[in-house]
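To whoever is on call:

I kicked off a structure prediction for a single chain this morning and the downstream step that reads the tokens threw a length-mismatch warning. I double-checked the sequence; it's 598 residues and nothing unusual in it as far as I can see. Pasting both halves so you can look.
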Amino acid sequence: MIFCVCLSFQQDRFVYNNFGQAGNDLHIDGSAKILPHGGGALELTNATLRQMGHAFYKQPIEFKPSEPVSFSTHFVCALVRVGAPSGHGMAFVVSHSTDFSGAEPTRFFGIFNSNGSTSTRVLAIELDISLAAELKDISDNHVGIDVNSAMSLESANASYFSDKKGENQSIDLLSGKPLQVWVDYEGTTLKVTIAPLKNKKPSRPLVSSTVINLTEILQSRRMFVGFSGATGSIMSYQRNLYAEVREEWEKEYGPLRYSYKSLYKATKGFSRNEFLGRGGFGEVFKGTLPRSRELREVAVKRVSHDGEQGMKQFVAEIVSMGSLNHRSLVPLIGYCRRKHELLLVSEYMPNGSLDLYLFNLDRSPLPWWRRLAILQDIASALSYLHTEADQVVIHRDIKASNVMLDAEFNGRLGDFGMSRLYDRGTDPTTTAAVGTLGYMAPELTTMGPSTATDVYAFGVFLLEVACGRRPIEPSLSATKRFLVKWVCECWKRSSLIDAKDPRLTEFSSLEVEKVLKLGLLCANLAPDGRPTMEQVVQYLNGNLALPEFWPHSPGIGVLTPMALSSAAQLMIPSLSLSSSSSNNSMFITHSVLYGSGR
């Protein structure tokens, strides 16, 4: 059961010491009621399952155009356990409407449904006592800031800052004890603070956000304020928790299919404690799966998708990626399908992504011999994809953040979120220009992807690893901003070695210069002037000498005017670009990128 016993709302509006004083000022519906013998307490829900209760101040709060949209409120509430816990807590709500007829009682606080908000313009402060993994809840005892969806923008486990002790003290939301809540909004900053009944307002809020534009959310300068609660059955939700999408044609992929229940348990309910990071198409979690008599560490990526069009080919290509076998690829182990979600299971890479070691100054820099070995690993993997796999595989997004490091710091190429497979002897059936700015070959927009565009990206990657910097650095001077151009300029001044990562101490000048020259050769403006990945492997391994070319050779160190102007306008290190593809184009969403990413 959920009770609210008092409310103050500051913007020269109203103060109630109990809701019995509110009279006809409140709009109440559902299971909500003011208890006649409860000191004027407002009861939002009781012990009945699958119900909702709302209580809103009838008159909207209106702000004049000359007034800032800001407010401050303070209320006292209590969440009382009645038998087995079946409620989902309560929410303080700011909305453009008091009509929540389209809301569901199950895990949505009586204001949202599975598609978000029925009005699409709602700000809610949730006191949540249920762990809904699909909503990415952090625990079953947390406070969150919601905008138009029950999936919180910001959340924190329930606690308050003790000014006396100088640290946070935990609070059990479902203890039944009265709890104070303060909500303060000014500018675009929203702060939520909680504390036990007898405490003063703590000096630090529990959770805050600096990106809340209330005028944009409400699309007007008027708003209704109130409370909402729901008691959707947790048991009925748990019966649907592990629901999957299975179709007859998937039987042939049986060995690669995992049950959702096994992945849910492996990741401890997709716990925030198991969160590894975000990749190109979703979030990645660490998991542990049983394997014979031992446990296997995996990375589980949750990928959202819209619609079922092409899903058969989609899964077929995922399985094709799972058949790839090379020591320098991150292995795809299996998958699971749900209604709006794919889950991709890959081998866990304990040392994260390479970019963490190249660009994070808090970490010790990788020595040159290790960098060279990683370059050889990735070159070998690409050569395999281009020439040895059953089908030609174009990766289309080669960069340091997509190179993973295993327990021995061997390089493994991952994140096949943009990859394309096609039969040997045929052309890729797509004209989509996808990739990351700085790594994209100039002919991508006119000729589409090819093995040569992968070589171009690998050339930039070679320079990235040797120089310890990203392809585009807007903060640097114009002469150093673009990596390919700057390395070539160093060579023109007969000081090519000056382009290396300044953090490198022990290295072979000949090896570093070879890698830098090879990077420029692979990033040649003309596709025909680039080597194949088979040749690149031989160059890096010392089995083949580099061809003779110079910094003034055609296509060397040249950037297209489009790339220069686009990067200068964006003023950011990288940008993922995607254009519409033909109906025959399918993107593989196998990705295990975690860490800082881009």
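Update from on-call: the warning came from a stale cache, not from the record. Cleared it. Sanity check on the structure: Residues 355-590 form a domain with the Transferase(Phosphotransferase); domain 1 fold (CATH 1.10.510.10).
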